[in-house]
Design a protein that fits this description.
This protein is α+β, with helices and mostly antiparallel strands and 139 residues long. It folds into two domains: 81 residues, Cysteine proteinases (Cathepsin B, Chain A, Alpha-Beta Complex), CATH 3.90.70; 56 residues, no CATH class. It is 30% helix and 9% strand. Strands 2-1-3 form a three-stranded antiparallel sheet. The longest helix is centred in the N-terminal third of the chain and has 11 residues. The two termini are 20 Å apart.
């Protein structure tokens, strides 16, 4: 959600906290499993297909998956998204210059699991599934 929140802030100058609960409850197609995890692309697809997402204030986080509320007021939307190719460092740097970028990392290795700060220098693979979601921002 931070990627979409950042993008909307850049485009409108308004910082809106969007509803993670709406994604937990409603974005269940294509492999998303509520509190058990999911794919960021499916969340983006849901926002596009649903023609928007509501605010955290209107649909607050409940710490569990509930029934999808389809009668909510949508406060923002995205028209689509693009994938940066795996190991596409130049494409990632170009994308980060324009807007926040969602990335996912393979977080099963011990180097990553025991990382506690500073510049990470271990082996890491950038993946599509939301194993360890991060937000990459730049200027």
């Amino acid at each position: 959600m931070a990627t979409v929140e950042g993008l909307i802030k850049i485009k409108t100058s308004k910082l809106i906290s969007f509803s993670e609960q709406q994604l937990l409850d409603c974005s269940t197609n294509g492999g998303n499993q509520g509190c058990k995890g999911g794919w960021m692309m499916n969340a983006f697809d849901y926002i596009c297909q649903n023609q928007g997402i509501t605010s955290e204030e209107s649909y607050p986080y409940q710490q569990m998956q509930e029934t999808c509320d389809t009668q909510i007021n949508k406060v923002a939307t995205i028209s689509g998204y693009q994938m940066v190719p795996k190991n596409g460092e130049e494409a990632l740097l170009k994308a980060v210059k324009n807007q926040p970028v969602s990335i996912a990392l393979e977080g099963h290795g011990q180097d990553f699991q025991f990382y506690n700060g500073g510049v990470f220098k271990g082996d890491l693979e950038i993946l599509s599934p939301m194993q360890s979601p991060l937000l990459d921002m730049g200027q």
